[in-house]
Automatic annotation (TrEMBL):
Cofactor requirement: Mg(2+)
Domain Enolase C-terminal TIM barrel, first and last residues per copy: 1-150
Catalytic activity: (2R)-2-phosphoglycerate = phosphoenolpyruvate + H2O
Catalytic class of the enzyme: lyase
One of the record's GO cellular component terms: phosphopyruvate hydratase complex
GO MF annotation terms: magnesium ion binding; phosphopyruvate hydratase activity
The organism's place on the tree of life at top rank: Eukaryota
Source organism per UniProt: Circaetus pectoralis (black-chested snake-eagle)
Pathway(s) per entry: Carbohydrate degradation; glycolysis; pyruvate from D-glyceraldehyde 3-phosphate: step 4/5
Protein's recorded name: Beta-enolase
Keyword Cell membrane among record annotations: no
One Pfam family this sequence matches: Enolase_C
Biological process annotations from GO: glycolytic process
Keywords: Cytoplasm, Glycolysis, Lyase, Magnesium, Metal-binding
Length: 150
């Protein structure tokens, strides 16, 4: 489930009806959002959630990972950046990296980011970014890095 919560975070709270005119009464906390996800996990076969909180809501990520036993994927949280990956690992904010080669800049840097995530026991999911070609390179990268997830 790719939530992309940074897209509907407003001043540290979350607007689940973000396409409607703003209404402060409608905003929920990160803790409430985490409880909503937990109800989904309990009632449906959810095994992976990507970007469940805003990219700077480190506390929300930490709290949630401590409460669930599923894969929590950091895309906007880590942006394939080694410093953010290291911080997320130290804070126990997620347990899987979404690796995007053209986000970090080179294949070499991507391999380093992958190894860093794996050194912390994380899963790694390789992905493309919007607007890329239909080239199958990422499938080869998944095999080469033994990530097992595209």
């Amino acid at each position: 489930m790719d939530v992309a919560a940074s897209e509907f975070c407003r001043e540290g709270r979350y607007d689940l009806d973000f396409k409607s005119p703003p209404d402060p009464k409608r905003l929920i906390t990160g803790e409430q959002l985490g409880q909503l996800y937990q109800s989904f996990i309990k009632n449906y076969p959810v095994v992976s959630i990507e970007d469940p909180f805003d990219q700077d809501d480190w506390e929300g990520w930490q709290r949630f990972l401590g409460q669930v036993d599923i894969q929590v994927v950091g895309d906007d949280l880590t942006v394939t950046n080694p410093r953010r990956i290291q911080r997320a690992a130290e804070l126990r904010a997620c347990n899987c990296l979404l690796l995007k080669v053209n986000q970090i800049g080179s294949v070499t840097e991507s391999i380093q980011a992958c190894k860093l995530a794996q050194s912390h026991g994380w899963g790694v999911m390789v992905s493309h970014r919007s607007g890329e070609t239909e080239d199958t390179f990422i499938a080869d990268l998944v095999v080469g890095l033994c990530t097992g997830q595209v």
